[in-house]
Design a protein that fits this description.
20 helices; 421 residues; six-stranded parallel β-sheet; mainly alpha; 6% strand; 56% helix
Length: 421
């Protein structure tokens, strides 16, 4: 469950980026540097002196005098101040209120060094932030895109990384957060394109704070009402598995320009039908999506039906092609074709369901399963071109073709599993 959200400030909490862009363009033009509004958005996250230094080096090939850099940065700061007050991003106050309702702490991670920062935050978002949950330019040696700011926030939080989420509006901020190993949501509040966030690996790309509010509510519902069931399933379908399917679904959703919140939801529900049985779990998973009244708060009837069909279509044994890109995404994400993982899970499943079999009999069962599902002519289908799965399947088929190699791997897993019982 999420315990803390780390927010960038400019462009994420405050609609300050248009003023920053105007100030930067005015001052850089004064010194004949080619620096457009889009450059400002792409460079957001760097410290001002770093931006100036990089522009100078790009134009002249040498580093500038540090005093001159700070003088120019002072001009930029004054130009920004003359543009008047900045106001909160539309919808962010509602997001912060939702986090308070859920008991999730909000942090600020910014390259700003404004002495009045806390007072401004407290005035605009009363009760959401405290000084102890702020990382500013005074707290780090290296600003974004270095991971230090978000690593510092995570270390201070005392939480596991999977309990934290970053909300950013800048590609370099995303780079910083991902380098720190944190799940990162990019909310495109400015003039950039979706591809600018896809290229730096944002886990989820949203268009506005309204979508972010929906995501936090969907996550809370799933965390409370869906995820607990996965702790009752077998090792091949536990929380570790569903988190991998969610992560890979989000990667594919970015790649195919699909709705990330829908992809997240489908992945979370895709094996929920195991509550009923294994043979038809895909159908029951689809039914659970259709019957979940809470989802109707956030998705249209058409979206709910697409998600239900995607869950129904995800099984590797399905003979027909999934009915939508979402079915293909979850099916591909569910195909974690890592030879070692697949063979280990096959032995684990056999031990749980056929404990009376000998080691050799478990190998024979695994061998027959491999031939039927993964060998040339087997029933598995890859509906999307995923390099990870295509290479994994090729490697697995090489192992299947070498019966003695396959046997040695299966018997090794059998010995490891039975030794721990």
């Amino acid at each position: 469950m999420i315990q803390s959200v780390f927010f960038d400030m400019d462009g994420t909490l405050f609609d300050s980026m248009p003023h920053h862009a105007q100030a930067w363009e005015e001052v850089m033009k004064r010194y004949q540097f080619d620096f457009t509004a889009k450059d400002v958005y792409l460079q957001e996250g760097r410290t001002g002196p770093d931006v100036i230094t990089e522009c100078y080096k790009r134009k002249y090939g040498v580093a500038p005098d540090k005093d001159w850099v700070w003088s120019l940065y002072k001009e930029k700061t004054e130009a920004f101040a003359h543009r008047g007050e900045t106001y909160p991003i539309e919808g962010v106050a509602e997001v912060l209120q939702e986090l308070q309702r859920q008991g999730i702490s909000a942090w600020v991670v910014t390259g700003s060094a404004q002495d009045t920062l806390f007072a401004h935050l407290d005035h605009c978002f009363p009760g959401s932030f405290v000084r102890e949950r702020m990382i500013t330019a005074y707290d780090v040696e290296h600003g974004k895109p270095d991971p230090e700011p978000y690593l510092k926030a995570w270390e201070r939080s005392g939480l596991r990384k999977e309990e934290c989420i970053v909300v950013e509006n800048a590609p370099l901020g995303v780079v910083s957060a991902k380098a720190a190993g944190l799940f990162t949501v990019a909310v495109n509040t400015g003039i950039l394109e979706r591809k600018d966030f896809q290229s730096v690996g944002a886990d989820l790309i949203l268009d506005n704070m309204e979508q972010l509010l929906v995501f936090f509510r969907v996550m809370a519902h799933i965390g409370k009402n869906v995820f607990p069931y996965y702790s009752t399933f077998d090792k091949g379908h536990n929380m570790e598995h569903v988190r991998k399917v969610i992560d890979e679904s989000l990667v594919l959703a970015r790649q195919y320009d699909a709705d990330g919140i829908m992809a997240y939801t489908i992945a979370a529900y895709h094996d929920l039908g195991l509550r009923v049985n294994r043979a038809e779990h895909h159908l029951y998973s689809g039914a659970y999506i259709r019957e979940d009244d809470a989802l109707r708060q956030w998705f249209t009837p058409e979206q709910i039906e697409i998600m239900a069909q995607a869950a129904e279509d995800h099984r590797a044994s399905a003979k027909s092609e999934p009915r939508s890109i979402y079915g293909k995404i979850v099916a591909e994400a569910d195909r974690d074709i890592s030879p070692e993982t697949i063979l280990c899970r096959t032995i684990q499943y056999g031990l749980k369901n056929y404990p009376e079999l000998s080691a050799e009999e478990h190998f024979e069962r695994a061998y027959e399963h491999m031939l039927n599902k993964y060998a040339e002519g087997g029933y598995i289908r890859l509906w999307l071109h995923s390099k990870r799965n295509e290479e994994g399947l090729r490697h697995l088929r090489e192992i299947i073709a070498d019966r003695e190699l396959l046997r040695s791997i299966c018997l090794r897993y059998y010995a490891e599993e039975t030794a721990s019982r």
